């Protein structure tokens, strides 16, 4: 357990955009300048982010971090940014222009940012499972802020029962999923957001428009890996009416 927790902390220290010493912060500071060296782990995460970008038609874009300059979901009282603010930032949201490979990454324009928040926590949950299974732990689960990875079922042979939070009623489950091996992740409009003039604005931003999604209240996905479940739920929220077919 200590080894697994240490790896979660390692991943946060390496990839959090809120930590000045993180690799992500170093990449963002270098925007418009020289490439930044990366390792195999980071290259693999960028490759997965690229796959999510393509699957979502560009709506899932890890360079959308620049939009946080306009959208502050912790501000009190809340404020809806002016459309001109959003339009001014959209040229900085452009994953296709990023130069990346196995050994380096470069953001071509000053002011660009990457944010791995859409896949980092889920990747950490998968790493916990790998470390625990390698250590001989036959039954277990990890829950990182609602993203769940389970393995081996319960010791008595039953499956784990994962509750799905009601998106509008605190403390109430809207359903549950039984799971022996695999992951469940939920994306919704309720975790970070605000309501102004009767309209809800959530933290899930469509990178093609710069504005929050406005459709599903909540979406849960079951997958073999937590990173797949989590990104699938987020892409589903972004795809709106096209999500069930996708």
Explain how this protein is built.
The chain has 246 residues and is of the alpha+beta class. 30% of the residues lie in helices and 21% in strands. The protein has six helices and eleven strands. The strands form four sheets. A four-stranded antiparallel beta sheet has the order 4-5-8-11, with helices on one face. A hairpin with a 2-residue loop joins strand 9 and strand 10 (199-202). Helix 1 runs antiparallel to helix 5 and helix 5 runs antiparallel to helix 6 (226-239). The longest helix is centred in the first third of the chain and has 16 residues, at 40-55.
Please describe the topology of this protein:
Layout: H1 2-15, H2 23-29, E1 36-37, H3 40-55, H4 83-89, E2 99-100, E3 104-106, H5 120-134, E4 140-144, E5 147-151, E6 160-165, E7 173-179, E8 182-188, E9 193-196, E10 199-202, E11 218-223, H6 226-239
Helix pairs in contact: 1-5, 5-6
Number of strands: 11
Query: Shape, please?
Result: globular
The count of helical stretches stands at 6
Write down the overall mean pLDDT: 96
Question: Span from first to last CA?
Answer: 37 Å
Query: Could you tell me the strand content as a percent range?
Result: 15-25%
Q: Biggest sheet, strands in spatial order?
A: 4-5-8-11
* Largest beta-sheet details: 4 strands, antiparallel
**Percentage of residues assigned to helices:** 25-40%
Order of secondary-structure elements: HHEHHEEHEEEEEEEEH
Poorly predicted residue ranges: none
Radius of gyration: 19 Å
Structural class: alpha+beta
Produce a short descriptive summary:
The chain is α+β, with helices and mostly antiparallel strands. The protein has helices at 2-15, 23-29, 40-55, 83-89, 120-134, 226-239; strands at residues 36-37, 99-100, 104-106, 140-144, 147-151, 160-165, 173-179, 182-188, 193-196, 199-202, 218-223.
């Amino acid at each position: 357990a200590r080894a697994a927790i240490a790896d979660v902390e390692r991943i946060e220290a390496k990839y959090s955009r809120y930590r000045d010493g993180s690799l992500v912060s170093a990449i963002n500071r270098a925007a418009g300048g020289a490439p930044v060296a990366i390792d195999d782990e980071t290259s693999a995460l960028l490759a997965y982010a690229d796959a999510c970008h393509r699957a979502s038609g560009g709506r899932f874009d890890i360079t959308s971090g620049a939009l946080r300059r306009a959208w502050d979901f912790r501000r009190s009282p809340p404020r809806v940014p002016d459309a001109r603010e959003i339009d001014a930032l959209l040229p900085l949201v452009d994953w296709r222009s990023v130069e990346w490979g196995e050994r380096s990454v470069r953001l071509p324009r000053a002011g660009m940012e990457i944010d791995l928040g859409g896949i980092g926590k889920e990747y950490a949950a998968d790493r916990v499972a790998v470390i625990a299974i390698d250590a001989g732990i036959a039954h277990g689960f990890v829950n990182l802020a609602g993203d769940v990875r389970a393995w081996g079922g319960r010791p008595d042979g039953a499956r784990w029962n994962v509750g799905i939070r009601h998106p509008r009623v605190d403390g109430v489950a809207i359903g549950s999923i039984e799971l022996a091996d695999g992951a469940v992740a939920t994306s919704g409009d309720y975790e970070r957001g605000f309501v102004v003039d009767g309209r809800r604005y959530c933290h899930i931003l469509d990178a093609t428009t710069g504005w929050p999604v406005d459709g599903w209240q909540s979406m849960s996905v079951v997958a073999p890996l937590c990173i797949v479940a989590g990104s699938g739920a987020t892409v589903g929220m972004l795809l709106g009416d096209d999500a069930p077919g996708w």
